[in-house]
Amino acid sequence: MADSACRELIVKAIFICLLKLAFSYSFRSCIEIPDSNHKTFRCIKCHETDITTIVSDVFPTATNLTVSRNNLTHIQGQSFHHLYKLTSLVLDANHIASIHKDAFNNLQNLQMLNLSCNCISSLHPDVFSDLHNLTELLLGNNNLTYIDLFLFSSLTNLQILDLRGNHLKNISSLVECITNLSSLIQLDLSFNNLTTLHHSTRLPNSLAKLYLSDNKLHKLGCDKSFLKYVKVLDLSDNKLLSSKTFQGLNLKSIKYLRLRFTNVSTSKLLNYTNIQPRHIDFSGLKLKHHALTSLCFHLRYHQIPKMVLQSNSIRVLYKNTFCNCSSITDLMDLSWNEMKTTSCLQFLHCQNQLETLKIEHNHLTRLMSCDTFKILYSLKSLSYRYNRILRVSGYAFSNTPNLTNLELNINIIAYLDHKALSGLRDLVTLRLDNNLLTDIYNDTFEDLTNLKTLNMRNNQIAVIFNYAFQYLSNLIILDLGGNKITQMRPHAFDRLKSLANLYLDRNRLKEIDSTLIGKLHATLQVLDLQANHILYFTEHTYSPFINMSRLLDLKLDAQEPNGINLLPRAFFRGLTSLKSLYLTNNHIIGFGAETFDDLKSLEFLTLDNSCVGIAQLKPGIFKNLRKLKTLSIENMGIKSFSKEVFGNLTGLKQLHLNRNAMMSLDISLLDNLTNLTYVDMRSCPLSCGCRNSELQNWTISSKRLQFPYLFNITCQDHPGSFFHNFDTNVCYLDIALYLFSSTFTFTILLSLIPLLYVRLYWKFKYGYYVFRSWFGEQWRRLRDQEEKYIYDAFVSYNSADEDWVMEQLLPNLEGSSFRLCLHHRDFELGRDIVDNIVAAVYGSRKTICVVSQSFLRSEWCSLEIQLASYRLFQEMQDVLLLVFLEPIPERQLSTYHRMRKVMLKKTYLQWPGPNCSDPNSAKELFWNQLKRALRSSNTGSQEEQKMKEQNDQRRQDKEGADQEEREYFVNQTPIDDEVYYLMP
């Protein structure tokens, strides 16, 4: 029993797993971040205005939820009740004006709540009452003017509170709200309307960071110990704030004080407070030459690791400016000033420990030669970004030989002297990007033997000459993107023994030089060739990457002007380690089945916009990509897939199909994609018909495979309808059963009809004719008068045997007073032929069938014998006489089963043939037997003779009336009976 129970549980478990693998899911307004394991969701730019509608179908497993840039104005109560596992909730950049007090109920696990950039003007005191574990609350950029005393009372674990960008005026009431928040570390009140820091209670001891910039503070007005525990204090952009207001304040704990764009005097500040000078940011305090000299005099006995002097309108720095600040060690930042020259940094000649210097966003136009100036051995990092430097002279950095980081980017450098970088043997990172450089000389980087990163992106370089980088044997990253490179000489990359990343994107290269790139095969891992002019005109086998077995990332997107168009066969041969391949915007005519065969390690492939018109991916095109995790084939004009296209993509997790021409998707195509978690089909013209009924059910039924934005997909063939809810009731018939039933019936009929045709053809035909006669009341009339015979016998024969009938049968029988009915003589003119036959058979006591080969081939003769045999068998009337004019083999009669039945039941007559030994005696015997048969009675009634006389009289009357017509037809030339019967 236990074993059977276990087996049953195992079967159920397997069944449930299979069910989970078979279905997919989507959300009305949200998407799940791929590979987040149902924990991270984003609901951005939705059309819904109701928050409960937006998040109603988000899984209860969610821990991170972002609902941004929507048209929300109100958050209802219990809106997130089912999302009890949430730890992060972002509701920024909506239009929220009001929040119900129970909106965040049941979110006990929430740690971060972002309500910034909305229209909130007030909050209910109990709105955060359930958020006991909240550590970060962002309410910035709203319309708050007042904070209720009990608003934050439940947030005992709150560490960060952001109230910047509101309309708060009274800090005292706010301090009362937060005084019991013993875990609060950071409070941001920037960009409000505070005029003073006057307070009625103290700040929490835990508060370490207080931001009060961009208010209207003209005095602090606070207790001397109010800022006792604050470590970071930002009072910048309070233009009315003066030094005097700091008098007596306890700022001993301050580690960073920012006073930019205030009226505070640094010297007075140092006199009024106990703050340490090294913790002051001196930016924006109008410290020009004399003020700087005075400041350094105050700091002459202090250690100053960092001196930030941004935005002080400094134009010139003299040799002795910082001599009293000789203890600056880590950083000096002179950015956002008005300096036009650095004078080879002679203002630092007293600085023996400074490591980093920033002179960004100034007005420098030239870096002069510095080979005769004092050497600054301590300087490691130097940045001249965002200046107007046009020229760098030779030996410009000779006085800073120990630089490891040099940033000259975002200038207008057009000339870089051959020896400009001379002496920088320790340089590791060099940035020359976003300048106007046109040439690289083979000795430009001569001394940069330890350089690892060289960025020359977005210059005007056209040619890479031989041995341009010959000294950079340790270079790892070389960025030459965004230039005008049209050619690279054969030895351009020689001696780059360590190069791993090479960026050549957005240049004008027309081909990939396999010899040139091949020299980097031992180390190259990333190759970027986007937006060049690479083009091929033949499909002949060619691979420029044949030896690039270490390459991990290859970008070939958007070749100018119209894409690569044609890929040679085996183009990617040799890239056995490649993990990422980018081929977007190339308008490739077609991909061969072997195109990606060598990419067995590929994990990411994008082919977006890489087609010309309608594309059809060939079966097996991805057959070797078993490690592929992300496949993007957006906007490729794809109408359909065969199952073999995705056959081996067992590792695929994300599939992007949006903006294709698919009207349907057979879900069986995805059966082998057991790891698939994300399928994007946005902007595909999906049909809302039965062929997509399974897809519709599949896309909304499960929790494994996500179809993002499914509920926004409209029906192209039914405007105004949506794919997720079109009516599929008519599609749920058991199509298989109906198809089986119909095909089975059709097969049976197809087998029986030939058999029935052979066996029952004449029975059906006879039945049809009988019905017609019955319908015309002829049948009923004949049945009522069946004993009132007009003729002794109706003679059924073929026109081929008419001579025998006229010369032999007619004289012998009518000469013996028998009345015979012959079709060419006695049928009623203008009457339907079938009615004439039925009337002749039932108006005669007997039917004589003159059987010959011609008789057997005649359909009308067959009808006549069928009618007569019907009377013989069904009505038990002895009415049929068979006369054989010639021998008929048994096998020829096998198809005439009714005639054979008559032959078995009755004796038939055989006309003596020419081989008869005594023909005269045989013929005499024949006629005697035939006459005897004609005289035999059908019923044995004694009234037969009387009936005969009455019929004779009736016949004579009829013959007199139609004598003229009969003579006409008797004298006609005999014709085939089948043709004759068609005459009126």
Brief digest:
Helices cover 22% and strands 13% of the residues. The protein is α/β, with parallel strands linked by helices.
Alpha carbon gap, first and last residue: 89 Å
Beta-strand portion reads 5-15%
What class do helices, strands and sheet pairing give? Answer: alpha/beta
Low-pLDDT runs of 5+ residues are 1-23, 939-948, 961-984
What is the number of E strands? 42
How would you characterize the largest beta sheet? 16 strands, parallel
Strands in their spatial order, largest beta sheet? 16-17-18-20-22-24-25-27-29-30-31-32-33-34-35-36
CATH class assignment of the domain at 776-980 = Alpha Beta
Whole-number mean pLDDT: 84
Radius of gyration: 54 Å
Output the CATH homologous superfamily of the domain at 776-980: Toll/interleukin-1 receptor homology (TIR) domain
Share of residues in helices? 10-25%
Question: What is the CATH architecture annotation of the domain at 776-980?
Answer: 3-Layer(aba) Sandwich
Description:
- Residues 935-977 are annotated as: Disordered.
- Belongs to the Toll-like receptor family.
- Residues 1-24 form the signal peptide.
- This is Toll-like receptor 13.
- The chain crosses the membrane at residues 735-758.
- It is a single chain.
- Residues 1-23, 939-948 and 961-984 have low confidence and may be disordered.
- The longest helix is centred in the last third of the chain and has 41 residues, at 735-775.
- Strand 14, helix 4 (266-272) and strand 15 (280-281) form a beta-alpha-beta unit.
- The chain has 19 helices and 42 strands.
- It has a domain at 776-980: Toll/interleukin-1 receptor homology (TIR) domain (Rossmann fold), CATH 3.40.50.
- The strands form seven sheets. A 16-stranded parallel beta sheet has the order 16-17-18-20-22-24-25-27-29-30-31-32-33-34-35-36, with no helix packed on it. A twelve-stranded mixed beta sheet has the order 2-3-4-6-8-9-10-11-12-13-14-15, with no helix packed on it. The protein has a five-stranded parallel beta sheet with strand order 39-38-40-41-42, with helices on both faces.
- It has 984 residues and is of the alpha/beta class.
- The two termini are 89 Å apart.
